[in-house]
Amino acid sequence: MVASIDAEAVDALGEERLDWRFKAIPASLxxxxxxxxxxxxxxxxxxGTPLLTLDAGALDHNVRTMARYADAAGVALAPHxxxxxxxxxxxxxxxxxxxxITVANLPQLRVARAFGVRRIMLANALLDPAGLAWLAAELExxxxxxxxxxxxxxxxxxxxxxxxxxxxxxxxxxxCVEIGGPHGRTGVRDDGDARALxxxxxxxxxxxxxxxxxxxxxxxxxxSDEGRGAVDAYLRRMANLFGGLDYETDEPIVTAGGSSxxxxxADVLGGAGGQVVLRSGAxxxxxxxxxxxxxxxSRGVGDARLRSAMHGWARVVSxxxxxxxxxxxxxxxxxxxxGLPMPQLVRGKGAEAVEKASVTAVNxxxxxLVDASVEVGDVVKLGLSHPCTALDKWTLIxxxxxxxxxxxxxxxxxxxxx
Length: 418
Known about the structure:
It holds the Pfam family Ala_racemase_N. One of its GO terms (molecular function) is lyase activity. It comes from Actinomadura soli. This protein folds into two domains: 7-56 and 306-415, D-serine dehydratase-like domain (Lyase, Ornithine Decarboxylase, Chain A, domain 1); 59-285, Alanine racemase (TIM Barrel). It starts with 6 loop residues before the first helix and ends with a strand. Strands 1, 10, 11, 12, 13, 14, 15, 16 and 17 form a nine-stranded mixed β-sheet that branches. Helices cover 28% and strands 21% of the residues. The chain is of the alpha/beta class.
């Protein structure tokens, strides 16, 4: 069996030497290869602030939990790689049984291919002529490479076909017709138009109709009855349409499923026939905010809950008012789009110091912490919301043996490409 990712390319990341390019890496480690840091296990206290870390135990737990769920539900999993853009973490997901890796755009696709990811889904339309020429060459040079992309209009299918013919593509490109919903994102709104688009794809000599795709998360932002009802109606529409199209493969796929409603995707699309492919990506890191509240595992699905694997660490740099402290982490360092950072404890003082505290605002480089028992120089551990806008701010992320320990140690460093 062909490997799902180039293990040698991933292992080679351990040869990269640390220096000033990487935020929060102490000068004492400059010049040292990443692999040596794994062996020396420097303490968290050696690292600067602001800092984002990952927790080794939580990562392992989350990968196992999702893999176990997908296996029990009879669905495949192609985790959305955009969440982490970290081949080291993709490798964990693939080794745990993932069907492939999903990406969102051409730059992400190139990262995945640079690390030899064998099966990739582009959850988007690839219309860039230069990108399609590169793809055609990549498919011809690597016969083991499996790729599927989406289209949501005859024009997009025609542009793909035109560029691939110009590039003298030797292999047909697999595509899924994308179905959208009212006020959602991309995707065909009308089922008749979807059928006509399928005909257009089948008529294109460089394309092959391989399935149906969609994203239910654009239709609901909470797990209320109304939100789940909208998701359910959309998925039933997908299921009905999936069974009525003629595919150019014996194993068509139907794909949906972010990290919020994958249980409904498995339940509804599981009876549609074909291979159901979930694209959940945030689960591997999870969070202490948005996904903690909306994840199906938090709503009683499965046999375990996910654990937040990411934390922020910020230092008190000012106490200009009695109830106000300024931390040295802001929008350039930590996520804020799905909720502000949440103080969890103060190093050396415990959770009591921030029991009544909250972060009320963030600037580019500062967070406003109110009602905390802290002094200038204290380091605050922060719970975070939304991994997709957390990891993108860091090119190298320390992995802790246990973020909840009194003296956490850094046991690995994860490289990202955003």
